[in-house]
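Reopening this one. Same input as before:
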Amino acid sequence: MARVSAIAHIAIAFPDRETWLRQPTYLQAQGVKFDRRVEHGPTHSLYIRDPNGYSVELSYELPREVRQGDIEAAINHYVALPTEGPEALEDSAEGHPVFAVR
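Same output, byte for byte:
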């Protein structure tokens, strides 16, 4: 029987990139498996499962100027990143796209 839940996932937003970066490092050291690592247009996110199987998203917002020009393009931007090893802990502070007004 499939498990039905009203909750798709829980999101925890961190105040800045530096605070967020400590989370993947700690979780990986504890042996927590990463389901996904994603660069969305407005956020960078890590998805894990809690002990009950719920999806938990850990994220931080990129600067407003990155997304404010074309929020639709920013929301639809998606780059999958590695979920294992040292590569899963890398996060580019620069070089993310800026979504300008079309």
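So the earlier flakiness isn't reproducible anymore. For the record, The longest helix spans residues 17-29.
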